[in-house]
Fold:
Amino acid sequence: MFQHIVDRLRGFAVPYQHALATEAGQRNVLLYLAGLLSHLDRKNAEKIAALVDVERLVIQEFIGAAPWDHRPLIKVLVGQVIDQLGEPDGVIAFDPSSFPKRGTHSVGVKRQWCSHRGKVDNCQVGVFMGYVSRHDHALLDFRLSLPKDWAQDAQRRAECHVPPEVRYHTRHEQCLEMLDL
Structure:
């Protein structure tokens, strides 16, 4: 029933697949997508790996710890948005949003203003950049906000695989970075 949709998504993913720098990344993105689109009740690395018949660590590393640059993927996306949705009066919009979290081990989690809950609470904060026109809209880029205390804590950064080049930015600086200014 969904095979047509799966085939369209596979075709949609091809330019993104080719934008990945490594051969392993190019191969694993299709395996990961197959798992996400599958019948699995829980779509975690272990179940996806079993479904696509690879070692669990292959999928786990691809989605969690392998170093890769998302900027080539964003360039493909922006090109597609321009070609398919671009309008002369379209605008770029930024939105900071928060995500309630339990515990303190997810990257960037701390007690801070949680707009989702309307109060100070444990959460992550992200900054999202979207394209908006009268006719359509699309998410173009996003950044997880890394609070200053997280940015300065080498042990936490290492435990969560936060790369050394990632640093604390104000939300304004994150917006400018997404625009490559």
Strands lie at 91-100, 110-114, 119-132, 137-144. The chain has a mean pLDDT of 86.
